[in-house]
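User: I'm writing a tutorial on reading structure tokens. Could you give me a worked example: one chain, its sequence, then its tokens, then a sentence or two explaining what the tokens reveal?
Assistant: Sure. Here is the example chain.
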Amino acid sequence: MRAFCVIVVTAFLLCPSSSYGLVVCNPAGQTEDGMYIDAVLEQTSGGKTFFPRAEREEIRAEGDELAVFNELFLSRGWGDGLPLIPPTPERVAAMVEGYDLPGDFAMATLAPMEGVATVEKIAVNAVMAGCEPRHMPLLVAAVEAVSRPEFDLRGMATTTNPDAVLMIVSGPIVKRMGLNAGSGAFGRGNRANASISRALHLIIQNVGGSRPGITDMSTLGQPGEFVMFLAENIEASPWPSWHTEFGFLPERNVVTVAAVEGYSGIMGIGYSRPEYLELVAQWLRGHDRPYRSAVILVIAQDTAKMLAREGWTRESIRAHLRERARVPFGDWIRQYHAAREARRGVPEEVLSITDEHAMIPKPFFDAMPIIVAGGTGEKSMIMPCWAAGRMVSEEVRLPWDWK
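And here are its predicted structure tokens:
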């Protein structure tokens, strides 16, 4: 960690007939030497988008200043297409107060353009996304997590793959912050779930410099680039909090980030334990890649309780699925013989097999997190993670006076 000083100046966009102005803070990141990420992007793209090289500006307009603000920020590439809340100095100052470090303190440097994520820059984007000040500790921890080298934000933010950052939150903070871990856990209706995830994506875009069509070359993209958030429903889970598998104590608050390509539903209604696990194994056997860094299994609480009653643990579920999700080598090599990434994560001895009937795991994966979330019912979900990056977990550090 290091201090990062920002010189604050004011720029004015003047209209002769304007009667009042809206002062807003700049959400764009700067490199360590003080160059704005937008200036670097202009050089990269060859395009020109006017923006003041300043930390604050006054927007003057007749009529609907909120509409003018949104149009201006979207034209600069600072929005995500949804309406933004103006990051006024007062709102930003209140957001900074949600954390216990000064606004100019640098929490991380974010790829792909190496923008410095100070507490204030995180706060500006948090305001725009609709966060509350009490959301800051969780958001800061997520920013630190995506900056870790093993997550590979540079690769995820620039790939042609349809990846988005999934935030997974576990620990007492889920209840204390009012996160939705129950019915519709992935869906709409909860401010914290939606705004914190949205803010993280805006920070990656504005501070890190991941811009669609310029540095972010995702062929199709995905809606998870707006919001992709999951809170563990520990109160409904028959197993210990899932972050304990990574060495964290149960009472700790942990945020995990993963680059996921999407999700697929697994309907377990009326299925017994072996039938349900076979559904998951079939999905794995039909998967399109030979290797994944992780495959996340989100199990609905009713199904999890059924499995636990029969003595199944997370580890025994993983072991069973690894064994059942196998295909004959002849089928495996016919599917992957031309894949450039076929060797990534695949044991060398597999590629030298000559027996086409030998059973090969599909896909190979380093980790299979099993998380209980959602309301009652038996609708589970499986989420494949990007092959190149790794999941990263970060403990959420709460200020002593956090409410």
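What the tokens reveal: Confidence is low (pLDDT under 50) at residues 1-19. The chain has two domains: 2-259+390-395, 267-384.
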